[in-house]
């Protein structure tokens, strides 16, 4: 039986990113490790019909367990589910066992400080953008040229509009938005107004305009301005585009995605996911061509990153309590 403080590991794994901050992973402590489940009540049938993003979120949580275990000289060995374990409302993913590892993973020091920054970045300089380029690697590309970033801002806005134009997608997103502090789940899950860097007026407007009026705004040609992130691209130091082998297990992708984000944090930047660039077919093809990727590679996510403006406080995380993660 493992002597690791599993509840502490689970708490640290809960800090990993998840799609819309739905936090879909549940854990069951067993004699030899941890059973890992997806809570199907957190499904996003419109935004994530094949559970790809949910499985990536599970991969990030799995890597969170691995990073926490490294503090105790251990690493994880994941055994994907080969048999069905029936638990109502849950989907069994596999078993985590622990084995002897190396020294503490240096990225573990940045787990507590990592967060999603959806506001404007500090004005970037050439030196900052050059330092961003050093984050590129074999499985990620960093765009840091202002001309490229301007083009990608247009691409991102169109991709976002393509998704937000779908009523089902938009309604599902709004259901996970916490636009008032009176919302009972403001500090628990989803995307609250503070995390989205919305003031009270902006949050109130979003609560109205993202519903039926959005269709009217689109008819008038005004919807794109509502979802635009172009102003955030103006000060960014870079856009990191992540790619993988075609057909790779999303859990494996999620583990590497989390590590890339922590590398960004380690380099002194803050970041936010720009999933629409990877999920929209046209933008994905455009990026694939610009990056000159071979046919056996596919784009699966993107991170926009830069420096946090001086004097800006990091928003508090919305997280479930430990007992809500543990079965």
Structure characterization notes:
The protein has 2 domains: 6-112, 3-Layer(aba) Sandwich (NADH Oxidase); 126-306, NADH Oxidase, CATH 3.40.109. The chain contains 13 helices and 10 strands. The protein has helices at 6-13, 52-70, 126-133, 146-164, 167-175, 200-209, 213-219, 223-227, 230-235, 250-266, 275-279, 281-291, 322-325, and strands at residues 25-30, 33-39, 74-80, 90-100, 140-143, 177-178, 191-192, 238-245, 270-273, 297-306. The strands form 3 sheets. It has a 4-stranded antiparallel beta sheet, covered by helices on one side. A hairpin with a 2-residue loop joins strand 1 (25-30) and strand 2 (33-39). The protein starts with 5 loop residues before the first helix and ends with a helix. The model has no long low-confidence stretch (mean pLDDT 95).
Can you summarize this structure?
The protein is α+β, with helices and mostly antiparallel strands. The protein is 39% helix and 19% strand.
Question: What are the SSEs and their pairings?
Answer:
Blueprint: H1 6-13, E1 25-30, E2 33-39, H2 52-70, E3 74-80, E4 90-100, H3 126-133, E5 140-143, H4 146-164, H5 167-175, E6 177-178, E7 191-192, H6 200-209, H7 213-219, H8 223-227, H9 230-235, E8 238-245, H10 250-266, E9 270-273, H11 275-279, H12 281-291, E10 297-306, H13 322-325
Parallel strand pairs: 6-7
Antiparallel strand pairs: 1-2, 2-4, 3-4, 5-8, 8-10, 9-10
- State mean pLDDT (0 to 100 scale): 95
The CATH topology of the largest domain is NADH Oxidase
Spatial arrangement of strands, main beta sheet: 1-2-4-3
**Number of helices, where a helix is a run of at least 4 consecutive DSSP H or I residues:** 13
Number of domains: 2
Order of secondary-structure elements: HEEHEEHEHHEEHHHHEHEHHEH
Q: Return residue spans where pLDDT drops below 50 for at least 5 consecutive residues.
A: none
| Name of the top-level CATH class of the largest domain | Alpha Beta
* Record field, number of beta strands: 10
Question: Helical proportion?
Answer: 25-40%
